[in-house]
Write a structure and sequence with these properties.
Length: about 200
Amino acid sequence: MDPFGRLLDRADRLLGRVENGLNLLAGVLIFALMLLGVVQIVLRTVFDAPIFGYIDVVEVAMVGFAVLSIAFVQRVGGHVRMEMLVGKLAGRVKWLVEALGTGLAAFIVAVLIPYSWAHFERAFEFGDSTIDIELITWPAKLVVPVALSVLLLRLAVQFGGYLRLAAAPELEPVAVPSIQDVAERAQQEILLSEDDDAAGRAG
């Protein structure tokens, strides 16, 4: 592998650990909210005693699982993509278009980070809290610039990966998501379905 490719691969692996941790934290938040929701329903319907401030807790916690996984999703290519044009491209042109889109996304994220940080600073300085139980909101608002910063790093790594491929399309892709087209995705789902059916018959 070329030196730049090794550098990108190392950055991809190190950043991937951070993204995996944030994704795990988002999963824990979702699971905790599911449990809290079950408790809320039971208390409200059976004992007529709903959890006071339940809505406030959900409002604050949902910020976490809404943005913590955003860099992870970008890494694996799980976000919604408009591939009517890109899917028909190949070679150097494809990688240049991917680099252009990634660079544009990085620019937008870079613009959003200072504003989200200022939003957190205002909440921290003024002691912003929710209405019912006065739950402080600055930790949730701090999550946004942190998650966007990780996303910006991911976009920077992918931008480098796309530029590398644009310069030398014959190289092995590094630090860029492997995006399947519709036919490949359908074929994979068929194979998975057949494997499940075979496992069911064997069981």
